Please model this.
Amino acid sequence: MLKLDLTYTLAENVAGGLSSEEIESHSQNIADFLKRFDENKPGFVNTVLTRRWIDSVNEMSDFIFTFDNLVVLGIGGSALGNIAVQNALRPLNWNSLNAEGRNGYLRIFVVDNIDPDYLSSVLDCIEPKNTLFNIISKSGTTAEPMANYLIVRGILDAYGLDPKEHIIFTTDPEKGVLRRIGRSEGIRMLDIPPDVGGRFSALTPVGLLSAKAAGIDIEELIIGARDAYDKTIKSTIWENPAALLGVIHYLHYKKGRNISVMMAYSNRLYYLADWYRQLWAESLGKMYDNDGNRVDIGQTPIKALGAVDQHSQVQLYNEGPDDKIITFLRTEKFDREMIIPKIHENEPELSYLGGKKLSTLLNSEQVGTQLAIAKHGRPSLTLTFPQIDEYHIGQFFMYYELATAIAGELFNINPYDQPGVELGKKITYALMGRNGFEEFGLSENGEKKVEIK
Ligand code: PA5
Model:
């Protein structure tokens, strides 16, 4: 299991820490919440307790393994889980390996942005006839994946390729334009569980198809998530990583720590921090609480990479405003190791490195950074992966989704909606001339119709 170490968030070890009593004071309400939660499980939990979604992806196997490349088009929750899984569980050079080096699995490109330089450069890397395009949008109304879909569709047409043989839509089982087009044109489709929001959907067909295509063990991802849920439901607060993450972040927020840094000491884990950034920001950043009171709540998530960001961020973390709770991600085991050669043994600036493992240096730097931050009175947590594999990545997703639900309960806000992103979308639709959104656009003399004050 993943290990959460609280040492440097407790007041007994760090000046700005929390007392055990403060954490303990939430044990009963968290236990009550988890009891209700288990009786009325949300969609993201039910998803990992059934085989339905994993089977739907497995059923696509014969089709997907006829291709060399998979291009995923999606954004936000329809992309970040895929990116995190690929980076954690496939080597950085995966797409540069030949088919043999990839054991016949597909190269994976996840295109989220609508930057023409970016999309063009991905399309330059693939041959349409050997490529499967997975368009993911739960709503089917999101401009970015829809624009990229239309471009891809145009390319398939230009090459005379049958869209039915090159596209899978992953979308709501009933609603939206992708479902409509898929039905009328006979395009293969995967369902997104209707009761799972985008940022909670990494372990649904949204994230599982690209993982499967890259040869990642999707069964183990789900088993990891299921075990994390089981532990969360059965454990008391001190043995419960999800509850501790939720409570500790909440308590630090109450003390003015309105920034949550996730600092990964592993390039492979770094993209988990990107996924977390969306989950924490969009779920917990809310103007109104569940009783309709104006609260302007939210803890800003920041991602950082160790050791790189020691040389850009850590000065601020140590001596800047005491407004952060930092979570270090680290792994006990790297898949590959490098021993630093013993060269220049007479040079003390270099000789201490000779003969040591590169991973020992990286993990020592993590400890050094954490202790220095503690010495400055600033709190931190450590989440340790025994190794980076499917099982522990599945756990990570589930623990943080549960921690988000728990933090939502403590803040008394709805972590599953995102009303704040709607207005910007409407203005964009109006500026792009979409019918029905004229009131959000520009007047005839070029002034914005949306009043700011
Ligand atoms: O978490 C969310 O709901 C959002 O980030 C969505 O995933 C994102 O906006 C994409 O939405 P859709 O899948 O409907 O295109």
Q: What stands out?
A: The two ends are 51 Å apart (CA to CA). The domain at 3-36+221-411 is CATH 3.40.50.10490 (Rossmann fold). The longest strand covers residues 324-331. The chain has a mean pLDDT of 97.
